[in-house]
Automatic annotation (TrEMBL), chain A:
InterPro entries named among the record's database cross-references: Fe-S_L-Ser (IPR051318), Ser_deHydtase-like_asu (IPR005130), Ser_deHydtase_asu (IPR004642)
Presence of the UniProt keyword Metal-binding in the record: yes
NCBIfam families in UniProt: sda_alpha (TIGR00718)
UniProt catalytic activity: L-serine = pyruvate + NH4(+)
Gene Ontology terms describing biological process: gluconeogenesis
Organism placement in taxonomy: Bacteria, Bacillati, Bacillota, Bacilli, Bacillales
Domain spans labelled Serine dehydratase-like alpha subunit: 17-277
Organism: Natribacillus halophilus
Family label: Belongs to the iron-sulfur dependent L-serine dehydratase family.
UniProt GO MF annotations: 4 iron, 4 sulfur cluster binding; L-serine ammonia-lyase activity; metal ion binding
A Pfam family of this chain: SDH_alpha
Signal peptide: none
EC number(s) stated in the UniProt entry for this protein: 4.3.1.17
Entry keyword annotation includes Iron-sulfur: yes
Name of the protein in its database record: L-serine dehydratase
UniProtKB/TrEMBL annotation, chain B:
Residue span(s) of domain Serine dehydratase beta chain: 5-99
Name the UniProt record assigns to this protein: L-serine ammonia-lyase
Broadest EC class assigned to this enzyme: lyase
Cofactor: [4Fe-4S] cluster
Known EC number: 4.3.1.17
Amino acid sequence: MMTFDSMKELLTYCDTYQKSIAEAMMDMEMEKTGQIRDDIFQKMKDRLIKMQEAVDAGKSDASTAPSGISGGDAVKMGAYMESGEALSGNLIPRAMRYAMATSECNARMGVIVATPTAGSAGVLPGILFALRDRDQFSLDALTQGLFTASALGYIIANRSFISGAAGGCQAEVGSATAMAAGVIVELKGGTPQQAVHATAMAMKSLLGLVCDPVGGLVEVPCIKRNVIGTSIAFSSADMALAGIESRIPCDEVIETMYRVGSEMPRTLRETSLGGLATTPTGEEIKRTLHN
Amino acid sequence: MEFQSCFDIIGPIMVGPSSSHTAGAVSIGTFTHELLGGWQPEKVRITLYDSFAQTYQGHGTDKAFIGGLLGMKTNDTGIKDALTMAEENEIDYRFSLEQGACPYYDHPNTSIIVAKNGRRDVKVGGASLGGGLAKIFLINDVETSIRLSTDDDLRSICNRLPMYMFTHKEREA
């Protein structure tokens, strides 16, 4: 049965058959499920459309989450972006706004698409719809991007982890950002090798990130970590597209994420028993929530 | 290789806020609903372990389990109101929290559900693996390993379970 156990295997496949990472993933899915390409493509496109709906719902919604500790920042980011004064140009603030819109929607118990998880659902829609606005990518092109993302995430998830409880935030926002970096490279015409280098560089920059949600909610610091993940994804993609390579091969970076996560104390793995969750402010929020 | 499809990574389509603490929990609840013959429980006791126990209210894990037990899917916007609905339907539910690890299965997001209605009386052990994927590791004290993705048809999975997992009375039901 065809599968990709490592980035090395994925790249060998892409090289042998002269295919993109997105095409390689569709080949695997067709072989595993026996479904035709059009059906698999449409199913992925349906998910993209749900992602777009979450962005559209979230970007102009100034309401707070039921907890009262998040919400309304996507609206602020939008106003700032439209002022034309944003320091990081037009693209990154746009991605930040869309990522924030999605993660705020998630906190309100709205409908989102887990990419790869709900806690990290902001990063991919952030970069995808910002690229759409900049380069007029079609929904089909962005759907290809989701196949690229799923191939990279599939290897990460099976060789390491994607849940904060198992491996900390490096496994969630870290994985999402690493996937997003590879997607940007492939959408912008980079090679599969360059995409995997971008994935490695993005993941390296988030190694060790702990999962410390205040009050046990997927809000503080989760939402802003998603937002900032988009800028790390673009920086990593820019390096890869400039021809810069990760000195440590991507498979070894993923293995490192696994080791670091395994050594991470339980207090820093989505138990809200450490990190920002146990700051004086974090404890105060928790007391208020539970009363 | 727990993750087998591109849709295990991009997906599920779900109500927030957490794929492991909300979506995975809904799937375990829905599976139990199907195991009860596709009917709601009259009485249910849910034990949550470790990370599940620590953050369950913040992530809506209680609403997610109860929503699933009521037969809801991961993208059902009614999950928000599941506890109210359970009270309206006079379901006797209770959560208990164990701060330590689950004795049956080594994962930080584990749960044991004991549920009954007029037809069946079941015990289900479920772990939420991340990204909305779940695993059933125990049915009525029989160890098992059933992987649940949110796209799976949980009713047909339940219908294919071997009969030795059920008591005589339940086989009749």
